[in-house]
């Protein structure tokens, strides 16, 4: 089961790498563990990593297996401009739109949303001489 969720994360990363998104361009990286490095770089980075696996009874003798993957966008902001912030939020929306209802690695999307219902979609963290933009979404897929 663990191999399937890693396969899903890799398939999402490969799709995102080949999909044409509006600027800004970004680097996509698939990871097994969510190790996010907030580097002082001008280019945004997208990390794709497994979040959870669950299976629940669907009917007698049948189990529904679902896999949740987190997609996180990070960027170091030298100056906290609202234009750049809005552009990055727009990029997250584009990422979400491109993945919605798409079959990945033989699985279909079940649900899609921000990483925590009680938390906002984005977060700004203070860094040395600037801020870090971080936005994350979760996509849950189930086996066909």
CATH-defined topology? STM4215-like
Gross geometry: elongated
How many beta-strand runs? Answer: 6
Provide the gyration radius in Å. Answer: 16 Å
CATH class: Alpha Beta
Pick out the low-confidence regions. Answer: 114-123
Question: Could you tell me how far the N terminus lies from the C terminus, measured between alpha carbons in angstroms?
Answer: 14 Å
Order of secondary-structure elements: HEEEHEEE
**CATH architecture field:** 2-Layer Sandwich
Written account of the structure:
With 144 residues, the chain is an alpha+beta fold. It has a single domain, classed as STM4215-like, CATH 3.30.2000.30. The chain has two helices and six strands; from the N terminus they run H-E-E-E-H-E-E-E. Strands 1, 2, 3, 4, 5 and 6 form a six-stranded mixed sheet that branches. A hairpin with a 2-residue loop joins strand 2 and strand 3. The longest helix has 18 residues. It is elongated, with a radius of gyration of 16 Å. The chain starts with a helix and ends with a strand. About 7% of the residues have low confidence.
